[in-house]
Amino acid sequence: MRAIVLLLFFSFNCLGQSRERVVLDSLLAELSSGKYKNSYDTGKVKLLGDIAAAYYMINHDSMAIYAKEGLSLSMQLNYKYGEAICWAQLAQANYDNFNEALEYCHKALKIFEQVNDENNMALTLRKIGGLYFNMEKFPEALNYFDRALSYFEKTHDRKGVAGMHHSIAAVYINMDKFSTALEHQLLALKYFEEINNTRNIAMANSNIGNCYVGLKEYNKALLHSSRAVRMFGALRVNDYGYATVLSERGYIHYRIATDSTSVIQPDSLLPEGRSANLAKAIQYYNEAYSVYLKSPDFSPATILERLSAAMEATGRYKEALQLYKQADKISDSLLSEDTRLKVSAQETRREMDLKDRQIELNRIQEKQKKAERNFYVASILILFVVTGIVTRNFVKQKRTNALLEKEKIKSNELLIQKDSLLGQKDLLMKEIHHRVKNNLQVINTLLELQLDTITDENAQKAIREGMGRIKSISLTHHQLYHDEHINTIEFSRFAKDLESQVTAVFKKNGQQVAFNNSIPEIYLDVDTAMPLGLMLNELLTNSFKYAFNGAVNCGINVTIDKVDSQYRLVYSDTGPGLPENFEILKSGRLGMIILVNLSKQLKGSFNYNSKNKQFIILFCDITTRKKTS
User: Fold this and answer.
1) What pLDDT, on the 0 to 100 scale, is given for residue 606?
2) Taking 50 as the threshold, does the pLDDT of residue 1 lie above it?
3) Are strands 512-518 and 553-563 parallel, antiparallel or unpaired?
4) Contacts of 107 (CB under 8 A, 6+ apart)
């Protein structure tokens, strides 16, 4: 569902690049005409803002440069409205950097509230909600979307109201509240029909179909999806929107084929039988991909992933694996391109900063020269000899100042280069962690395929346990890739993700498992977090395999605290515990051997307290281990 939601934000802001190019050329010509060469007023701020806006669909780096220049001038002039517009444009230019864009949006919103600009308040609140949505912080997104909706209604902006109902519906879809999502999506359709926006009417129908898919009312979903496909076909466009509605049409057939609880009614528009619906799904996925080939201005990775899943469901595993690899390759290439663009943007900003400093230096030198001329005239009138002496001393001082200024500029350049290299290093490290995570996912996929060909239960059990350990390692790299701290992991959040991952694999139908995760916010280095995560994975797996055998209401408690220079992890469950006189080292179980060896690797220990039925792991972080080694 996520891909369709992102399209909503895109579709409301998309403008033709060719028209923007004409407007941009005209604005750049006005800026370079000489009219604003020595002008520092609100008119120049407005022109810089117009240029930044024109760059939106062409080059975000250039948009950021002109928005930054407009912001600097607005601050010099104490021009609050211009400052707010430039903050909003900087947020738009850096929309893929969620935290930075949020900071800019909040600065813009604060000023718009001060000047009571309700239209821009609504637009900024919508941007903030979109950022929280992309960060998957849905309650926060819903809060800002609701606030934006109230302002759009207050200013009688029907297109804005429709867009907000779209966005609010998207949040509820991601929260699995499909009935509420449907209510907002139907309101959005109503407003789009009032303003006669055919493209958005089609998109609204496709999203209504998505809501009905969530409610498992597949016949209604197909009716709205068919209407969206017909409307796009009549528009005769081959773009992201058309490809998306075709893909969503295929997804309806895929869901009806793979949903074991669904029953196709006799009067249904859907074909009967699993095979027929899978064939329809593959047909529409292929049509969506053909639209991409006609106008390749977006990434087809999602379409290929869905096509791969449909192929896998039909037993065409080889084709499914090839499509998955193709989608993964596209994702990797987009990541590499994104990395290159970010590095290029850093270089562009660095050059712009140097240019700004040079302009400021020239301005200061111009003022100094004017003061010098006045000084010379006054000195000649008073005494010619004194003028000569002062002039000679001034020239000497000027040379000294020039040498000092050169050294200062050189030092600043070296510092900027150092910051740039560190930023590139962080980006490359994140890309490495992303690739490792993808490779582990490919290994897991291959093991899943192999699992289908093995009949021996012991072998299947061993492969599933190995897959669990691989997923634990993959989760570590996922955290490193998404976190701002690329060398450390926030272990409390990691433990929660690991609990969800193990529960999804081992929990039986009807079983209720309560987790009491009392781990504080603690950042551990990679060399400590990865072995500790494997140990926690083993304990969670053992609880489901042995402790909860047949139990319905189960519980798991995990805590971490610090004792002197060591950390202590205490783990327990509501199972019967280990047998009396159980000796860990003599048990011969692979899981116990792994737990003992990993604890030694962390310069700690692994023990079982039979009285309290608790496993106790003592471990040291890498800093302590280096001191004691």
Assistant:
1) 93
2) no
3) parallel
4) 84, 87
> Treating both helix axes as pointing N-terminal to C-terminal, what angle do 138-154 and 158-174 enclose, rounded to 10 degrees?
160
Write out the two tokens for 575. 């199972």
Residues 153, 158: Cα–Cα separation, whole Å: 7
Distances (CA, A) of 11 to 132, 417, 562: 19, 39, 52
Mean pLDDT of the chain: 79
Which pLDDT band, with edges at 50, 70 and 90, does 424 fall under? low
The number of C-alpha atoms within 13 Å of 471 and in the hemisphere containing its C-beta is 24
Q: Which three-class secondary structure string do you get for 359-377?
A: HHHHHHHHHHHHHHHHHHH
For the four alpha carbons of 31, 34, 37 and 38, in that order, the dihedral sign comes to negative
pLDDT at residue 395, as a whole number: 78
Sign of CA dihedral 377, 380, 385, 386: negative
Spatial separation of the C-alpha atoms in residues 286 and 531, rounded to whole Å: 43
Closest to 249 in 3D by CA, of 222, 212, 214, 286: 222
Most confident of 174-178, 372-376, 504-508, 588-592: 174-178
Q: What angle do CA 437, 138, 257 make, to 5 degrees?
A: 65
Q: What are phi and psi of 608, to 5 degrees?
A: -125, 125
Structure tokens, 530: 């990865």
Question: Following DSSP, what letter does each residue of 106-126 receive, concatenated?
Answer: HHHHHHHHHTT-HHHHHHHHH
